[in-house]
TrEMBL record:
Pfam families: GreA_GreB, GreA_GreB_N. GO terms for biological process: DNA-templated transcription elongation; regulation of DNA-templated transcription elongation. Belongs to the GreA/GreB family. Keywords: DNA-binding, Elongation factor, Protein biosynthesis, Transcription, Transcription regulation. This is Transcription elongation factor GreA. The gene is greA.
Length: 158
């Protein structure tokens, strides 16, 4: 049985856009680069040819990876979710109980997690500590710097 991959509609759309870019832009560009490098003669010492082939290998691998992820995607429409309990898709604001510093995260699927955008994987330690909790709850989360305590300030679905 293939395992489903939970993801938001936004995450699924990003994968679709990347796949389209790889198929319609990156693939033809690398094929052109290989053809041009071949015209330069001896392939055994042709760095351009080898670089283009490596790029082609990467593109084909990424296309296969995205196609697999999309085939197994379980798209969850976050806008249809509600409540004040943390679950997949929630945007959660937590406050560090030591510093009162607030941070907001959205809990998303593994393939769309991006710390720079404050999107954390549903399987991450922070998300696992938050799931099932509600506004006002205090949670203990194991971080690289040790145990931290956070209070859930806000839970929303957008």
């Amino acid at each position: 049985m293939t395992q489903k991959i939970p993801m938001t509609a936004e995450g699924y759309n990003r994968l679709q856009e990347e796949l389209q870019h790889l198929r319609l832009t990156a693939r033809p560009e690398v094929i052109q680069a290989i053809a041009e490098a071949r015209e330069h003669g001896d392939l055994s010492e042709n760095a351009e040819y080898h670089a283009a082939r490596d790029r082609q290998s990467f593109i084909e691998g990424r296309v296969a990876e995205i196609e697999d992820q999309m085939a197994r995607a379980e798209v969850i429409d976050v806008s249809k979710l509600s409540g004040d309990t943390v679950k997949f898709g929630a945007t959660v604001t937590i406050a560090d109980e030591d510093t009162d510093e607030e941070t907001t995260y959205q809990i998303v699927g593994e393939v769309e997690a991006d710390v720079k955008e404050n999107k954390i994987s549903v399987t991450s330690p922070i998300a696992r500590g938050l799931i099932g909790k509600s506004v006002g709850d205090s949670v203990e989360i194991e971080t690289p710097k040790g145990q931290k305590y956070f209070e859930i300030v806000d839970v929303r679905f957008q």
